[in-house]
User: What shape does this take?
Amino acid sequence: MAEAHQAVGFQFTVRPDGVDFKLSQEVIKNIYLSGVTAWKKKAIQFKNGVLAGVYPASPSSWLIVVIAMMSSLYIHIDLSMGMMDTIKENLPYRSTRAVLSAILFATGLWLFLIYLLRYTLKALLSYHGWIFESHGKMSTSTKVWLCLVKMFSGRRPLLYSFQASLPRLPVPSVDDTIHRYLESVRPLLDNEQYNKMELLASDFKENKAAQLQRCLILKSWWATNYVSDWWEEYIYLRGRSPIMVNSNFYIMDLLYVTPTHRQAARAGNVVHAMLQYRRKLERGELAPLRALGTVPMCSTQMERMFNTTRIPGIETDFVQHLTDRKHLVVFHKGRFFQVWLYTGGRHLLPSELETQFQRILNDTSEPQPGELKLAALTAGYRVPWAQARIKYFSQGINKVSLDAIESAAFFLTLDDEPQGYDPAKTNSLDSYAKSLLHGKCYDRWFDKSFTLISYPNGKMGVNVEHSWADAPIVGHMWEYILATDCFHLGYTEEGHCKGDVNKNLPHPTRLQWQIPNECQNVIETSYLSAKQIADDVDFHGYLFAEFGKGLIKKCRTSPDAFIQLALQLAQFRDQHVFCLTYESSMTRMFRDGRTETVRSCTSEAVAFVRAMEDAGQRHFNGENAQRLALFRKAAEKHQNMYRLAMTGSGIDRHLFCLYIVSKYLGVDSPFLTKVLSEPWKLSTSQTPQQQLNLVDINKFPKYVCGGGGFGPVADDGYGVSYIIVGENLITFHISSKFSSPDTDSYRFGQHIQKAMLDIQALFKPENDKTAQNAKYVHLENGKKHI
Assistant: This one.
């Protein structure tokens, strides 16, 4: 351990004539440098905190205001309209009254101007008319609005500069929400079912909604966001089922490029890049994400990216976030190692990290009793894990070792089985995804904010705990890591990290455990329950390379709407019925915003799908114009729903919060109970790419990420994550359950492929349609892909 290494540098011997001290000059130097680095870090954080705190003004603007007020004393022009004289009369020192009154008034005026600028910017950011305008067309009012936003946004904002200027998430009216809800379920219900739902909604609106809405509006005034805290608590932290597969998600490495095939070297570069990112994050030096390059997004979720762990509880978990963690924990072949990330007040260099990881790979020691599958506790049900944590890990060396894991910057697994996309191997993407999603059920610490996974062939990946943040947040970090790894740090010709090798670093330390047989039984039970879940995941991933965003945009439609309608067509062909469909949208234009649901199965989408499946018309070119018109109508409806969700006028988060209020007040609502119990048989999400634009993928087309995915939400449904990669590639990650006789991920993937091609054919002449359909691989009906 680093503490022990430093202690060796300080020795003393008691002699009859006194005490003889021996100090190691090298260790004293390291201690000194560590202190200097710590104070430097605090100074930078303080400076950036001040800059963000007074934004969009600057500290230098205070001096300008003070000078202006001081100047007024000498030119005998009272710019304060008598206020400085009033302040002067109440000051004790006669000789300096005039100067002090000018400084105090200038400071007050400066603070007033800061708040005026902030609230002006907040008012400007509350305008969302721009998002409802047609793509490529911008009204004069929106152009004026953009100019004003740019003018009031200041220069060179830091990560958290806009936080105080972001508007609060508005509470929609009950009438609007219920109207949109009934509209969303109309294509899914027959007349009798829909009439019953209308009666439930009408009863709720007339008798109970007003009281619940008043409470929600009161919360929206008091809290920075009326949804996010309840969403984190009730959707994530209070869930008692396993978070592996059911909640956690994953992100893949580069698809076509592996910078080095040396496992320790790749891990060294990636970990070092993460430390660089963490330093920028802690100092607030990252640029805030902005839509249109102007409209800021909330950065709150990024605060808990590192040094964060989900702690299990009997009734509810909680998220523990620490600061300034200087170590990580590494898992390899059933052993846990602690690795220090600093030496002499600086980060370990990539070559030094490679040395440390190689030492772990070379270690041939055996796991201690109960250590091999210990992490399965985080993969199983939450209550047994919480009880075991209290009983077996609350004292002694078990507590010390568990604290080391839970307080680590993040968790690293050095896996022993190669993974990654290989076009020469069938199902390589499927195996890669399952490894990232659940692994062996005991080789990822699923409670950590994220587990970094390193494979023997140099591939990497991330498994992410979901409660603290959503996929775009981790995607932002991962883009920075991959670009830094490949284009800034690099490798030697032999595949090692660049830089000198420091062999004097203290070796990684094995964490020690004393796990009794009773606890080992709990671990095994958790492992078996987790393995049952993992074995049931039917996953299929594939790369759709026939066309991409470039061609879709030439068709003058939204790529997301195009894919969502293809998913509706594929769903109907696969299941022969329509279902409630979940698409995740973000609400980060608001303070502390997270997500909202877009209900993609609309009446317009259903009409389009039925037209595509009309057996009497499918092969007549004359009907393409009608289908195309229905497609455009459905796509426009979808885009409008997405825009409403982004601007705080969604359906599901409002109803969810009304339901929570009803439970607090003891109000029984059959309508809200019915709404919240509806199953999402098709759950979809788009993972954003190129948030940072650090790599020009037109110049480097091979340096693209495979995106990520998640487990199935319903027992008899599908989970679909899709990533629009550049102009010519779309990746799909499809999950379902083997135990369901109605689903097959491979079959659904083929339906998606066919649906994409069929829709694209609507925009082409009939003679091209045959060529496109020839690319479709015929399905064997009902054949399960295992």
About this structure: DSSP finds 25 helices and 22 strands in the chain. The CA atoms of residues 273 and 484 lie 6 Å apart.
